[in-house]
Write a structure and sequence with these properties.
elongated; 2 domains; five-stranded mixed sheet; 225 residues; D-Maltodextrin-Binding Protein, domain 2; 10 strands; 8 helices; alpha/beta
């Protein structure tokens, strides 16, 4: 009888111990989850954002105290607006836009340089020379962009000026459709939106960035507030 009583007491102590350990585990998991910080990074789905995708996958495979949330936008004005308004913690952004925001008093800092080339000038298939762009509409993603500089260099090298063409701003995802529909005759953009027009048979690469500006690398930054 005494032996059964001792066993019952032992079983009760063991059960209470297991419940206590389970409670500790639950508290630990809650605390760990509470300590995980989510960092929102804005981006446009172009090849220059690939490092963000890679880092996100690495964090998923090896969880740390930081979680990366990628926030997709379709145009640079949307990205800079979200960054300036504090809706995101950082962005893969045109370095010219980051510099302009800094000039305007936005508290940003560059944490990485991620641009390793990948810009192209694409035209409709009936354009075989820069001279044929005279009087035509040409798209860039933003006035403050490497793509605009490339356009300037291309025109200057071929005896044309801004006044000779109609320059408009379009978000990169819109450019292939605009070219296909005849709304523009060419555009300067980061991949893969140049390759899209080539793949669908509506456009061709007139120049890549290295043809126009040999030192155009390292012109995109990852900025954070």
């Amino acid at each position: 009888m005494k032996e059964k009583f001792i066993r019952a007491i032992f079983a009760l102590i063991l059960a209470l111990l297991m419940l206590n350990l389970a409670g500790c585990k639950s508290t630990y998991e809650t605390n760990t989850q509470a300590e995980t910080k989510t960092i929102k990074i804005a981006y446009i789905p172009i090849t220059h954002a690939v490092p963000l995708y890679i880092q996100n996958e690495l964090l998923k495979q090896n969880p740390q105290d930081v979680k990366l949330e990628l926030v997709k936008f379709s145009s640079w004005p949307e990205v800079i607006e979200a960054l300036n308004a504090g809706k995101v913690d950082g962005a893969s952004i045109l370095i010219q836009l980051a510099m302009k925001a800094r000039e305007q008093g936005i508290d940003l800092k560059a944490v990485a340089l991620g641009h390793r080339d990948g810009n192209v000038v694409v035209t409709s298939k009936d354009i075989s020379s820069v001279a044929q762009l005279k009087g035509k509409t040409f798209a860039i993603p933003h006035r403050l962009s490497t793509h605009n500089i490339l356009l300037y260099i291309m025109l200057k090298n071929n005896g044309l000026s801004y006044n000779d063409i109609n320059v408009i701003e379009l978000s990169p995802p819109e450019m292939p459709a605009a070219l296909s529909e005849g709304r523009i005759s060419g555009y300067s953009v980061a991949e893969p939106f140049g390759a899209v027009s080539v793949a669908n048979g509506k456009g061709k690469v007139l120049f890549d960035s290295q043809n126009l500006w040999g030192n155009s690398r390292l012109l995109r930054s990852c900025a954070e507030k």
